[in-house]
Write a structure and sequence with these properties.
Helix content: under 10%
Structural class: mainly beta
Radius of gyration: 15 Å
């Protein structure tokens, strides 16, 4: 078992300050680094060798965030813009992808390459 510490903090100017932090236990983790070429489409990235429901933490960061950089967990049917970092903690949150998140399909509709970092915390046994 591996312990992964996570934290998030939101600070509104002259407003509320919210934060959360915890540790999630996973059996395995994977880190994927890739660069999406300018105007790339249908780039498939394997997230895990397992089945649906095994991912417990998903973090996606990029060198640039743009509505024209999209990912899909359902083979391109639903394209979601990567306009900010994505952090999903817990099976329920990962379930919001509404598909089997074993593979993500990427498109980069911008004129520049975009470096993507993906961290997955998961169970290794079904």
């Amino acid at each position: 078992m591996e312990s992964v510490n996570w934290a998030v903090h939101v600070d509104v100017a002259s407003g509320p300050k919210l934060s959360a932090a915890d540790t999630i236990t996973v059996e395995a983790y994977d880190k994927v680094s890739l660069t999406l070429d300018a105007n790339a489409s249908n780039v498939s990235v394997d997230l895990q060798p397992g089945t649906a429901g095994q991912i417990k933490l998903l973090l996606i960061t990029a060198s640039a965030y743009d509505a024209d950089v999209t990912y899909s967990a359902d083979a391109g049917t639903t394209k979601v813009p990567l306009d900010a970092p994505l952090v999903l903690v817990g099976g329920g949150a990962v379930g919001l992808l509404q598909a089997d998140p074993t593979t993500l399909q990427w498109d980069n509709g911008t004129a520049d390459p975009v470096a993507i970092q993906i961290f997955v915390g998961r169970d290794a046994t079904p």
